[in-house]
Design a protein that fits this description.
- 60% of the residues lie in helices and 0% in strands.
- By secondary structure, the protein is mainly α.
- The chain starts with a helix and ends with a helix.
Length: 124
Amino acid sequence: MSTASLQAQHAEFAERVAAGAALLDQHQPGWERQIDVEVLDLASAEDDVLGQLHGSFDEGLDALLALDADPDAIARSDAFAVAHGFDVAPDEDEPGAYRELTQAWRVQIAQRCIARLGQEGRAR
């Protein structure tokens, strides 16, 4: 993959992860404090974001889809997972894609922790 392609993928993953983080903010405030970034691995059904929050990727995805008012939400679960940074698309499933997606989640979580520390510091 070329450098330009990698940069585009990085930006795309960051955008998807931001959408997933915003969704989790709505339904599970403080979710980022429950994630162990040392074991975080989006290629693992138990160590990915949803797995760490719900026990497995499938259980977490089902929980989020159950909150969707659209009766066809289950039918589009794969697209939903990709759009929210919880999985890679079938055409992206190559060595390094899950590693890159995992890194995008680590960055998102780190940014949230830094922001929270800044807010706590100002509150003192």
